[in-house]
Amino acid sequence: MPIIQEPFSRVAVDIIGPLPRPSATGKRYILTVVDYATRYPEAVALANIQADTVADALLRVFTRVGFPREILSDQGTQFTAELTQQLWRLCGVRALHSAPYHPQTNGLCERFNGTLKQLIRAFVHESRDWEKYLPHLLFAYREVPQESTSYSPFELLYGRQVRGPLDLVRAQWEGAQEEDGVPVLEYVLKLRERLAELAGFVQENMETAQAQQKAWYDRAACSRSFCVGQKVLVLKPQRQNKLQAAWQGPYKVVTQLGDTTYVVVSCADTRIQRTFHVNMLKAFHERPETVDAICAPAAEETEPFPLEELPGVARQPSGVDQVQLGEELGPEKQAQARQLLLAYPGVFSALPGYTDQAIHQVDTPGQRPLRQPAYRLPEAVR
Questions:
Q1: Does residue 194 lie in a domain region?
Q2: Residue 240 in 3-state DSSP?
Q3: Number of domains comprising the chain
Q4: What is the pLDDT of residue 180?
């Protein structure tokens, strides 16, 4: 991912919800906005996630921080609706969308969503009205230094450390005197120098963090690519259960947007094009159309009828004289085994095939598929 230095030049947006416990005013969703440069988060409680509601909430956020140049979101209908797209065009915002079923593209916002939900889950035991205390949870998140930047989002945005509750307690204990004010010009110059210094430090820390994260990810990653026109299978969640996914297709690759992003169309219906990450694709290998079936006798028949000759498998001599015996048997044991093979050539054979000495009947009482509950596989097994 590119390293953004200008605050709120690129932002990531996402929606949390519906929450199991609504707020006192009936809000069940949270719109989250995270800045790529400073990791500064914003969160707005919503009653619904319709396009007009989401657009109005984003406008309220942008009136405080300004309109971004790029905005990254998933392909939800509230972000891809004509109303939202028209708003981006009027405001000069370039809309970026993540690939379907690949939340790693918007990993910055997804990580913040997980942290915010943990804070709400821990806080809701004491107070049911989580909307009232949502600004307090955001304040606590903004004053904590980030692992990638090594600075807090508040300090990167405003150029100074936030004066939080612990600072108030410390000042009360120490009884420190407040410093005299400085001229406006001197304060502005120092602030600009401070922000430029922080931007350099943050860029170095981000490059180091990204190198470590890439090295960790590449340990088990392998490079894969597909050609235009190649048939592939797509890993998509099932309609019955979104937690279960299955390979569906075949699809045909139409365009390659990048190193890891492809546009595919269904071979059955080429009108709709979908964009998928390479992790959701695998090559499709066509099987031969002719299938050789083996039939078993019906249950009511008493006398088994002879098996039909399988196509491509003709009866061949048994070749018992070509059977290889283990060297561990010894000369005497090998002679006895060879004598046994020659005495019963209709039973033993050196060639693979089938026997007419016995018939195995497979009962198939119906066409209902067998259902097995899903369970997690260890990483080593994967």
A1: yes
A2: coil
A3: 2
A4: 64
